[in-house]
Amino acid sequence: MTVQDFATLGLADALLRTAATCGYTTPTPIQIGAIPPLMAGRDLLGLAQTGTGKTAAFTLPMLHRLAAAGARDKRIPKAPQALILTPTRELAVQIAGVVETFSRGLGLRHALVHGGVSARPQVVTLQRGVDVLIATPGRLLDLLEQRAVFLDRVCYFVLDEADRMLDLGFVRDVKRIAALVPKDRQTALFSATMPQSIVELTEGLLRNPERIQITPTSTPIERIRQSVMFVARNNKRPLLSRLLGAPEVSRAIVFVRTKHGVDRVVDALKRDGLQAEGLHGNKSQGARQTALDGFKRGRLPILVATDIAARGIDVQEISHVINLDLPDVPETYVHRIGRTARAGAEGIAVSFCETEEIGNLMAIETATRRSIDVDQKHDFHDAGIEAEYRSGRRPPVAASQRARRNNGNGNNGGGRPKQDANARSAGRPQNQGRRNGGGGNGRPRRSSEARQSA
Ligand code: AMP
């Protein structure tokens, strides 16, 4: 793909000026691919993740065309012309920020509606009239029921992170909303993955779409220094405090599987004198936004989050991503570590792996087609877990994980390229970094091995 200038995309001068102010000098691949067909009125299917510049890819042509069409009919309030549907509040807030920035100088108005906050101000804003509505499905349906908004004037419909929308169980909501949008519209659907459920959804929603696929997973991953630390479950939190206390950790996201886990980790970090806040769906919108703003502005160095809460968060200069537990879906791992190494920077991703997670680690290595470096240079290194990992046997997977993974790989790590195992043992000094020998933590290491061989 040739390097292209924004000026060649035919966008309004005001948009080009704002792009320049935001430091967008060259369009990203998704922008090069998506902006021309969207400008021409085509439907679009974009296979792209957050971090690729997809928000601007759909926002710029939408605002351009809205501005070119002239002033909205002020006699018809509550009837936006563009609808951007997105799965989470955080993502909605982020998109609204981009819409707000690029609407400057175009005379276009937008509204942001999501749950977790009072609907009243949202109703008032809609009543005043907006061009672009950014919404999460649940709150939008509530407002539609209250007749606080109508979708019969929508001519631009964007579904962002469609796969996550379905993961979160919004499929019926999305279909109900789509049915209220006029058929004669332009639709753009973005998804990081393309499972069968999304294929079916696109068939119902898109007309002869232009298909753009951006595979960022291979490129950013090259810039991320990935490592795994074998550590017993009980030692994960002390190890985490130790890592996060290091001076080179300037801005870190810690991923934790459950909401309760997030709270427990934040409490433990605070007890250890570290400044950390949690981000998950049970927190009030205010608390989530405060934590996120603090993190973005550099006041808060550590954010602890669940996958869903962190989805779509765009913060530059995250120095470290730490996986307190390893997700059982490899794609989630790729999403997580993609939070670092943004904007050309190098990033560091450290994953903790306990015995039960060896299978997850193997699945991730298979999916990303690379082996992850083992870091033994910490006081909690568990050589027993490492030995189990190197044996190449995939330990039994918990039933819940097995159901979710369902990838037919069996339980012997069969999908893992053989040379990975060789590469792992080759070139790595056997005793490197083992400070206190054996399990390194004074804990009887045999227990985990015993469990494994059972
Ligand atoms: P997104 O994938 O939309 O979440 O965008 C990821 C990040 O890339 C955001 O911080 C954008 O501000 C930034 N960005 C988007 N387009 C460009 C561009 N053409 N040049 C530089 N940065 C961009």
Give the gist of this structure.
The protein is 42% helix and 14% strand. The protein has 20 helices and 14 strands.
Which ligands are bound?
Answer: adenosine monophosphate
Tally the structural domains. Answer: 2
The helical percent reads 40-55%
Number of strands: 14
Task: Give an overview in words.
The protein has 454 residues and is of the alpha/beta class. The chain folds into 2 domains: 6-213, 3-Layer(aba) Sandwich (Rossmann fold); 224-390, P-loop containing nucleotide triphosphate hydrolases (Rossmann fold, 3-Layer(aba) Sandwich). 42% of the residues lie in helices and 14% in strands. It has 20 helices and 14 strands. It has helices spanning 13-21, 29-39, 54-69, 89-103, 120-128, 137-145, 162-167, 171-180, 196-205, 218-223, 236-244, 259-271, 285-297, 307-310, 330-337, 358-368, 383-390, 399-405, 418-425, 446-453, and strands spanning 44-47, 82-85, 110-113, 132-135, 156-159, 186-191, 210-213, 224-230, 252-255, 276-279, 302-305, 320-323, 347-353, 373-374. The protein has a 7-stranded parallel sheet with strand order 3-4-2-5-6-1-7, with helices on both faces. Strands 10-11-9-12-13-8-14 form a 7-stranded parallel sheet, with helices on both faces. Helix 15 (330-337) links the parallel strand 12 (320-323) and strand 13. It starts with 12 loop residues before the first helix and ends with a helix. Residues 23-24, 26-28, 31, 50-56, 314 line the site of adenosine monophosphate. The site of adenosine monophosphate has 14 residues, from helix 3.
